[in-house]
Structures are given as structure tokens and as C-alpha cells.
Amino acid sequence: MLKTHIITNEIHLQEFADSFQRFSEFEVSITYLKGAHVRVFKKNNKLVGGYALNSTIPFRYFSFPFVKNEHTNNPKIPPLSETVEGTCIWMDKSLTTMQRIYVYIFLTADFFRSGRKYFLGGTIHPKVRKMQMTALSKYIFSIELDDGRKYHYYYGSRKDAVFALARWLLKRSRKLFDRKKEQSKPY
Questions:
Q1: To 10 degrees, what angle do helices 158-183 and 97-114 make?
Q2: Which of 5-14, 34-43, 70-79, 82-91 has the lowest mean pLDDT?
Q3: Is the pLDDT of residue 52 over 60?
Q4: Which segments of 14-149 are extended strands (E)?
Q5: CA–CA gap between residue 183 and residue 187 (Å, rounded)
Q6: By 3-state DSSP, what share of the chain in percent is helix, strand and coil, each rounded to 5?
Q7: Phi-psi label, residue 88: left if phi above 0, alpha if psi -120 to 50, beta otherwise
Q8: Nearest of 31, 62, 37 to residue 114 by alpha carbon
Q9: Is the dihedral of CA 143, 147, 149, 152 positive or negative?
Q10: Could you tell me the CA-to-CA distances from 174 to 5, 70, 97 in Å, in that order?
Q11: Which residues contact 93 (CB under 8 A, 6 or more apart)?
């Protein structure tokens, strides 16, 4: 069973930052995390995932050195005063599909609690991008890094998130139930 809570203590924020860096290869400062809404997930008292939501400008996504001025006066970017960025999302590989769904349900709920209209996302990982863009379907731009990989930026609205989460949950649930049904068939 996963347990979740918001963290604000500097020791816990440092543990989160260290875990995020191990999983993502990107660093995140404690100063940034102190100003964000950081939620963690634990399994058997072990940190297995988490994320940070931030609605304070400047956004972390646009502060990476490789972004340069790509975001300045970009008409594809929603009004930042109406936007929350979801960053530092990570999950241990040991999490089951249902546990990952649990994390995304909380992420969506926290987005709604933020009161912001838009959710900004980004990633370097193709699988994460594909999954997240089912909800955050408005593509902004991508930047090629020195090693040839691309960092992609995208966003979605509250309405997009509701419909995408419902579709995703239905699809995942069907797969899970079909698998259980197949396993329960007599020989």
C-alpha cells in the first residue's frame, strides 16, 4: 500500500531531491522545492516516488541553461499567471500499474487544488512524454541537448486533464481486469 503526504521539512526535501536526481539525472535545488508543493509516496516506509507543483514565476522548466530564450514571447505558452508547472515527477520501477495510477490521480487532484487553469510539463524521456501528452496535448517546443536527446515542453488545461485521466484509467483498468480474468480461467 502506498502512503502519501506533503513535505516541507528541509531534511525530507533533501531526500526527495537526492532520489529525484538518481532517477532523472537532473538536479533540483532545495530553494526551489521550498517554494513548491512537494508530495511524496512511500511503500513500506521507503520513498518510491513524488513530484513538485510550482506556480511561482520564474518556472524551473524555463530556467534550465539549454532553454535559453525559447520561451520568451512564445505564443504557444499559456499565460504563466494561470499556469502551474509539474516537475520532478519520479516513480520507482517497483511500483505496479495501479500504484502509478494512484500517483497520477494525486497529481491531477493537486493540479486542480492549485486553482490554475493550465498545467505545464516537460521531459527528456520518450515514454514519459508519450504518456503525459495524453493529458497535456498542446505541444510547445523541444530543444536538442548536446548529447542529441531532446527535451520536450507541453501543456494542457483542466478539461484536458479530466478527459485524459478518465480515458487513461479506463484503458489501464481494462488491461488489468483482462489480465486477471485471463489468469482466473480454468485449465
A1: 160
A2: 70-79
A3: yes
A4: 37-43, 46-54, 83-91, 118-123, 138-144
A5: 10
A6: 45, 30, 30
A7: left
A8: 37
A9: negative
A10: 29, 40, 12
A11: none
Domain of residue 24: give its range: 2-183
**Is the pTM value of this prediction over 0.90?**
no
* DSSP conformational letter for 58: S
Q: What is the pLDDT of residues 140-157, one digit of tens each?
A: 888 888 888 888 989 999
Give the length of the chain. 187
CA pair distance 125, 89, nearest whole angstrom: 12
The residue assigned the cell 531532446 is 150
Contacts of 48 (CB under 8 A, 6+ apart): 2, 41, 42, 91, 92, 94, 95, 99
Total domains in the chain come to 1
Strands of 2-7's sheet in order across: 2-7, 37-43, 46-54, 83-91, 118-123, 150-157, 138-144
Contact criterion met (CB below 8 Å) for 41 and 7: no
CATH number for the domain including 35? 3.40.630.30
Give yes or no for a contact between 63 and 103, defined as CB atoms under 8 angstroms apart: no
Distance CA(161)–CA(163), nearest Å, equals: 6
